[in-house]
Every structure is written in structure tokens, then in C-alpha cells.
Design a protein that fits this description.
10-stranded mixed β-sheet
Length: 275
């Protein structure tokens, strides 16, 4: 893990997201590439409806906000001992993140929408990034100011291709944890078919990467896998949850409350997810 892509935007959690990305970059000795995307939709508002902003004061205020974000992030990074560069572009947020992530090992993003955007649009962007990028996506926990790479890690294992990708892509970050738990959630905690990859496969893979992990099988809570995973993580004092994303269709997860959609909306601890 040598390159971390950090997406910044003018939202209330951006400073904490920068701190988290810096903590990860330090832990794995990675370069931090900061991506500042001005949404093409926002830019188009001023171009298409100039009549409602005849003196261009709203456009200037918007541009000033974007400039202030860049200045604040650069000022923070200038005092850190992590190598970094800053890229500012205009376009589709998800499209620009996916493009830059082609040469990044981890994407650090946020689930909080920027001012004026809906919460659903933020989830849509995350979903688009997950579906179109091979790099894992990391989201800071809602209840933690900053992520500690040396904390406890829980891997939600279901034997799927998606979670295998998350483990492989994030193994250097997982290896920083002081304690790693691989947990399988089934309806009543019973033994079930292994899926594509038996749990022995991931335990052996982790071991070859210097990670000693413990395995547990637990039951769903209130018929929800996500609730069981989060309760287990809380019991272990975990700061990182690793899962696969959108093993079923995105539409199906949105309509019926899938694990990925639930965790993307809200997760109290750091979340690393891959498709």
C-alpha cells in the first residue's frame, strides 16, 4: 500500500478525514494523493442559470469556498511528515475518484454529503466508486474523531469474492492491527456452506502476511448481519471493520436493506469495503 487517494470536499468532517488519511499513510509509509473534485453539476448551475445570479456573487462565493478548502487542506498537510500532492478538477465526483484510484491502493472517502447535496446522493457516489474501482474504500467511523491503525480489526467473512478483495487490497492496513478477528455471521450461528472461499483460506492468507487472526461464528441479531457484526466489533473494542461490498445487486440492497447499504449509511467505527 504505497498510494492513498483522499477525496476532499467542503463538508463538516473533512478535517477529521484528512487526519485519518494521514494516520493511515504514516502507518503503512504511503504517499497521499489528495483529490478535490468540484462537481460538474454545481458548475453547470452558474453557467445555465446566470439570470438568477446577475452580479455573479453566488458564483464568486462558491469559488471562494472551494479555494478556502484547498488552502485549509494544504496548510494542514504542509506541517506533516507524509509525502503528498494535491489535484483539483471539475467533473463527476464518482468518475474522477474511480479514474484516479486506478493507480491508488486505498481510497479514503466520506459518507457525509457536501452542503446542498442529499444524503442519498452521497451513498450513490460511494456505491458508484465501489462498483467501478478495484481499490478498497475506507470510511472514517461516525463515532471516532480519528482512526487508529493500531487498534482491533474485525473482518466480516462470508466466503465471497468481494470480501476476499477487501482483505487482499487492505492487508497492509489489517497487518497494523494489534488484534484481528475473522467472524462469520449466519442465521442462527450454525455451520453453512463455505462460499467461494472457506475461512481456512483467509486465515492462511493472513498468516502468510504476518497476521495472526482468531475465527468466530455468530448468529444474526434481529435478522441483520450488519447489527451482529457491529455488536461483535463493539465487544472486541474494534476500530476497523472489513467487509465485501454489493455481493448482490445494488438495487436489491437498496430496496431490501442489504449489509453494504446499511454500513455505507452509518458505521460507528472505521469501515474498509471492496467490491
Amino acid at each position: 500500500m504505497k498510494t492513498i487517494l483522499l477525496h476532499v470536499q467542503a463538508d463538516p468532517a473533512v478535517a477529521k478525514r484528512v487526519e485519518t488519511a494521514l494516520a493511515i499513510a504514516r502507518a503503512v509509509s504511503a504517499h497521499l494523493e489528495v483529490l478535490h473534485v468540484t462537481s460538474a453539476d454545481a458548475a453547470a448551475v452558474f453557467e445555465s442559470f446566470g439570470g438568477i445570479d446577475p452580479d455573479r456573487s453566488a458564483e464568486r462565493a462558491f469559488d471562494a469556498g472551494e479555494d478556502a478548502l484547498e488552502a485549509a487542506v494544504k496548510a494542514e498537510l504542509a506541517n506533516e511528515d507524509v509525502s503528498w500532492n494535491y489535484v483539483r478538477v471539475t467533473g463527476s465526483t464518482a468518475g474522477q475518484i474511480v479514474t484516479k484510484a486506478a493507480l491508488a491502493d486505498l481510497i479514503v472517502a466520506g459518507r457525509i454529503p457536501r452542503n446542498g447535496d442529499s444524503a442519498s446522493s452521497a451513498i450513490t457516489v460511494l456505491g458508484d466508486v465501489l462498483m467501478n474501482s478495484v481499490s478498497p474504500v475506507f470510511l472514517r467511523g461516525d463515532e471516532h474523531d480519528c482512526f487508529d491503525p493500531k487498534g482491533v480489526c474485525v473482518i466480516g467473512w462470508d466466503g465471497s469474492f468481494e470480501v476476499a478483495n477487501a482483505v487482499r487490497g487492505g492487508v497492509e492496513l489489517i497487518a497494523q492491527a494489534t488484534e484481528v478477528h475473522v467472524v462469520r455471521v449466519t442465521e442462527r450461528g450454525e455451520e453453512v456452506p463455505a462460499g467461494l472461499y472457506p475461512v481456512t483460506d483467509v486465515l492462511e492468507y493472513l498468516s502468510r502476511n504476518g497476521v495472526k487472526a482468531e475465527y468466530s461464528r455468530i448468529a444474526e441479531v434481529d435478522r441483520k448481519v450488519s447489527t451482529a457484526l457491529l455488536q461483535f466489533a463493539e465487544e472486541k473494542g474494534a476500530g476497523l471493520l472489513v467487509v465485501g461490498g454489493y455481493g448482490s445487486s445494488r438495487l436489491g440492497e437498496k430496496l431490501f436493506g442489504g449489509v453494504t447499504h446499511s454500513l455505507l449509511k452509518n458505521c460507528p467505527i472505521g469501515l474498509m469495503v471492496a467490491h
